[in-house]
Design a protein that fits this description.
With 281 residues, the protein is an alpha/beta fold. It is built from twelve helices and eight strands. A four-stranded mixed beta sheet has the order 4-3-2-5. Strand 2 and strand 3 form a beta hairpin. The radius of gyration is 20 Å and the shape is globular. The N and C termini lie far apart (58 Å).
Amino acid sequence: MKAQEEINFNRITEAINYIQANFKTQPGLEEIAEKVNLSPFHFQRLFSEWAGTTPKRFLQYISIGYAKEMLKENHSLFDTALETGLSGASRLHDLFVNIEGMTPGEYKNGGENLHINYSFAESPFGNIIVASTPKGICHIAFYDDEKPALTNLQKQFPAAKYQLILDKEQQNALYIFSNDWSKLNQVKLHLKGTDFQLKVWEALLKIPMGKLSTYGSIAKKLQNPNASRAVGTAIGDNPVAFLIPCHRVIQTSGALGGYHWGLNRKTAMIGWEAAQTNPEL
């Protein structure tokens, strides 16, 4: 091994060991980079080259693994989150769900190259249709009747090939409705959307479970404070009910505002999540 390669290898080894030993404090990029005497930019690039993933993603893998072990031992969501170094159970949702945008080629011409599995299931908030591509969940919607629910899905990808089957991606995503998150692997969402829509949906994932935000606050976080109306439109276009938590967004006045699936359902979701994340309720 060449001298520089050996130095780089030792640095990445040291960084991995540091993350594994200190994941409960959720160290940031700057902190880890400082430990191996590199700038954050250089360290991020070097770590990705050697480890095949980013430092943040590696930290998430370690955290999820530890959280799952605690949940298997019947610890509560609240205790598991705190012991994993998260600010509370609210962060677990963010940790367990990840968005990947579809490439233009993946939904070109109505998704003619997409193979989509779908199934029908029950949730605490009503019946849902859930659909997935080989890369992740692409659609979750509440329904009253199966036929129009499937029709609405097919309108999104009219040229895709569909199969009625409950696959592993769907089964994994459905665990999020239960308290037994020990069975839950990271949920990957494979979504069709504009860059702006994807940014809005990613921002929604950062709203802590059991907490609420406003359209204006999300616009500010996207560094576009005048885009509240556009944010509202993107939220209304959310293709994955509940997992992308658009129900956590309310009006600045404190009013619940609208919700595609009905205000009664939105109210139930907010109350259910508050109960899950606050053991004193």
